[in-house]
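Handoff note, outgoing to incoming analyst
You'll be picking up this chain. Sequence as last confirmed:
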Amino acid sequence: MRPTITLLKNIVGTLLVLGLSFACTGEDPVARPYGYAKAVLPKRQWATCQQPGFPAHFEYNAASVPRLLPSGSGNPTEGNRPQQEGTLWMNLEYPELKAQVHLSYHPLNSIYYGNGQQVRVADALAVLMAETQRMTFKHTLKASGIEETLVQYPEHKVHGMLYTVRGNAASQTQFYVTDSIRHYLRGSLYFGATPNADSLQPYSDYIMEDVLHMLSTLKWSPKGG
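Most recent structure output, in case you need it:
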């Protein structure tokens, strides 16, 4: 019996040594990247936005709620910059996504200098375009990049630029469109949460599709505002 017991002990000992050997030579554990919950996005359904008094109409995602704001809801004019009359403000509010697309309409023939003199349309357009670019590029401190996409729908007299801001910027989408004669519309996307490009990416991509569709269907009022 002794040889049998000794043999069993040797086998068990060998298995233990092999087990420890494999355990010691295994790879170090690797931390998994932090994951985010899967984005639940509303079903998209198009509707027509035609607010009384707002000189543009377009198709929008019915998951959002168009809300025309009282006059003077925007930022006040600073210093000696040209005064704007007739500016209108509208939000497309996404309650499920806690996001808003801020829209502001500016009639090009209603911008005046401080002395009351009317600004030429070409100069007014240049001022508004420069202001949109300033508001976009102020996000460069937290942005990892800004992409520009030309917007051109000549059949509707809609021309402009769409800016996609990458990184943890407060606004990841900015745009403007104009007919270069009477109308100028500016827009920007904001979330009611701390900017985090990774967690907000599915939602910003979803709303980006809505913005592109809105611009492709946008038409100006024939009355010119």
